[in-house]
Write a structure and sequence with these properties.
The structure holds 2 protein chains of 2 kinds.
Chain A (H helix, E strand, L loop, with lengths): L6 H29 L11 H12 L7 E2 L2 E2 L9 H4 L4 H9 L19 H15 L13
Antiparallel strand pairs in A: 1-2
Chain B lengths: L8 H27 L10 H32 L6 H24 L2 H7 L17 H23 L5 H17 L9 H36 L3 H22 L12 H11 L2 H16 L8 H24 L3 H7 L3 H30 L7 H38 L6 H7 L1 H24 L13
Classes of the chains: A mainly alpha, B mainly alpha.
Chain lengths: 144, 460
């Protein structure tokens, strides 16, 4: 780099730029919080969906699935699974319940988690709540 | 070695390499499960193996960063480390806590681990990369605080170089951003919003400061280029990293229920994120071209140039490929993401850790550089691992493009598992490239034991 651009100038860009963009990011975060009630489907958050989120977390579902596109890419997207299963929490529950303990020879298979009825219902309600989040029309189609 | 206490870096580096081997082993298991679905099922289900794979990556890189800091900070500060004893206590704490966590993942069902460790009282588990039990997370915070304290005290009492100050800024940032791993609201959108404050602001934020300062240190040492020049470059690189990377977080806020303006902000700023990585490549090559000495450690210089190029390709080019919102709409959460993740982590962070190990390890073993034969083996391992990673990335990219087409873009979108079966060929090829990577890594290990016919390089 040429002589006219010295270390002090570089340092000032670093400090000034960082401070400016940290502040901008905080301001945008504040605004995002303000706008979220319109999109994040918080009206559907209940004690049951909160329990469902815990069941989701404590069985490490994200270790195979994506949820709104984030997670592992080994198993289907579940942000829209409620839609894909014909808007039926019963169908979701039936699938989770039906997984064979020993898997399927040669194939990927979801483990049998032996969830209680209460946990199953909560998990299905959680997935229904997630399905209602306004994601800007993502995923592109029902297959996720 | 200029200062005796720099030697505490050695166990950190050894632990890092050991965990790296384990990480790659689990990577091979995962690759196998992609094509032979019931491989090791139900003993090691995919989600467990993946958690082990990604958590080992994070832990070995942290060991590498800490080792790098213990090695270079005393030398830059021109004084002994504040407390080598604390450094060793934290080493064993971190290693044992890490090992127990991994053992927990492997031998206890995850829900049982959550119960055992009281996740109900402070629920933080079960989110990607942050799967550690809350008690482990608290342990990580304690280790990080002790480590930052030790390093900061060393610098405060000594010479404050730009390399030191930037490194500490990165390390403090790492510790502070990790605190957001304790934020886990029941509102999924908010959960995801702050989850990225750990994940994105680590790897596309403060870790770049750590990467930049380690690279700058190695280049100063191996090329003999004037410190003023190197420091100016370092400032420009980290300035661009933060200017683009902070608002660049927005490329994760496209489809998770956040306001629409993030589509614009995320696309524009993250499209600029390759700039700091490009600068790093230019920086490394420029310094080596302008070198005032020929350092006998050719392998370390190769790693330094390699990390510049591969970070730019993996983080920069492969990141840019799917970062614009209209593209990401189709590629989000597919094998394209996996392709980018692999090359970016290898190029930016695995390689910089191997770079500092390559530079520092011979010195800690009492020589300026390894002999010719050991270096040749190390450079072979460099090329095997790097080329293998390029192919892993290319195969995953091919799989990803097909996946997007079949599942998301064509007129008759097909279900996830139907598509997975059709792209299995690319998963097989990825697994093959993974085996080559493992061979490269074994060669890397061997390079530490290669004996010379007669010792050389002691006089540079």
């Amino acid at each position: 780099m040429a002589e006219f651009f010295n270390k002090t100038m570089a340092r000032n860009i670093y400090f000034g730029g960082s401070v400016f963009f940290v502040l901008l990011f905080l301001a945008l975060t504040f605004d995002t919080h303000r706008q979220l009630p319109q999109t994040d489907n918080r009206g559907e958050i209940t004690e049951q969906t909160s329990l469902g989120k815990r069941v989701w977390e404590e069985n490490n579902c994200i270790g195979c699935h994506t949820l709104l596109g984030e997670g592992a890419y080994f198993a289907p997207e579940l942000g829209n699974v409620y839609e894909r299963y014909g808007r039926s929490t019963e169908a979701i529950k039936a699938f989770i319940k039906s997984r064979p303990e020993g898997g399927i020879p040669g194939r990927r298979s979801m483990p049998q988690f032996n969830l209680s009825d209460e946990e199953l219902e909560a998990l299905a309600q959680f997935l229904k709540y997630v399905n209602g989040i306004d994601t800007g029309d993502w995923p592109p189609n029902i297959q996720g | 070695m200029t200062y005796e206490t720099q030697a505490v870096a050695k166990p950190y580096f050894i632990a890092a390499i050991g965990l790296f081997v384990a990480q790659v082993l689990f990577g091979l298991i995962l690759g196998m499960q992609y094509v032979v679905g019931d491989f090791l099922f139900p003993e090691i289900p995919f989600n467990v193996a993946r958690m082990v794979h990604t958590n080992l990556l994070i832990v070995w890189l942290l060991f590498g960063f800490m080792g790098a800091s213990y090695f270079l900070v005393p030398e830059e500060a021109e004084r002994e480390l504040h407390s080598p004893k604390l450094a060793m206590i934290l080493f064993w704490t971190f290693l044992i806590a890490g090992a127990l966590t991994i053992i927990g993942y492997l031998f206890v069902p995850y829900a049982g681990l959550a119960k055992m460790t009281g996740n109900e009282f402070l629920p933080t588990m079960g989110r990607e990369f942050l799967e550690q039990p809350s008690i482990t997370k608290i342990g990580i915070v304690i280790v990080a605080l002790g480590f930052v304290y030790n390093i900061t005290m060393t610098v405060l009492a000594g010479r404050k170089t730009v390399v030191n100050v930037v490194l500490i800024t990165g390390l403090v940032g790492l510790a502070v951003m990790f605190l957001f791993s304790f934020v886990n609201p029941d509102n999924l959108v908010l959960d995801k919003y702050y989850w990225w404050w750990v994940v994105h602001l680590w790897v596309e934020g403060v870790w770049e400061l750590i990467l930049g300062s380690i690279l700058a240190y190695v280049l100063i040492k191996t090329t003999g280029v004037d410190r003023e020049v190197v420091e100016k470059w370092l400032y420009v690189i980290i300035a661009m990293a933060l200017i683009t990377g902070i608002i660049g977080t927005g490329h994760h806020y496209f489809w998770i229920g956040t306001p629409g303006y993030w589509l614009w902000l995320g696309s524009i700023f993250s499209a600029l994120e390759p700039i700091p990585f490009f600068l790093m490549t230019i920086f490394a090559f420029n310094m080596v071209n302008q070198r005032r000495r020929d350092h006998p450690n050719k392998a370390a210089v190769l790693w330094a140039m390699g990390t510049g190029v591969m970070a730019f390709l993996g983080a920069g080019v492969w990141g840019f490929m799917h970062t614009l919102a209209p593209v990401n709409y189709f590629t989000h959460g597919t094998q394209i993401t996996a392709a980018h993740g692999h090359m970016a982590f290898y190029g930016a962070y695995a390689m910089i850790v191997m770079c500092i190990i390559s530079y520092a390890m011979p010195i800690m073993r009492g020589r300026v550089a390894n002999g010719r034969r050991a270096q040749v083996v190390e450079m072979w391992s460099f090329w095997l691992m790097t080329v293998a990673m390029v192919f892993i990335t290319l195969f995953l990219t091919a799989a990803g493009v097909l996946q997007v087409w079949l599942q998301r873009y064509s007129d008759s979108p097909q279900p996830f598992m139907v598509v997975q079966d059709q792209i299995a060929l690319f998963y097989w090829m990825r697994e093959g490239a993974g085996v080559v990577f493992m061979i490269g890594l074994m060669l890397y290990l061997i390079s530490f034991w290669v004996k010379e016919p007669e010792p050389v390089g002691a006089t540079a």
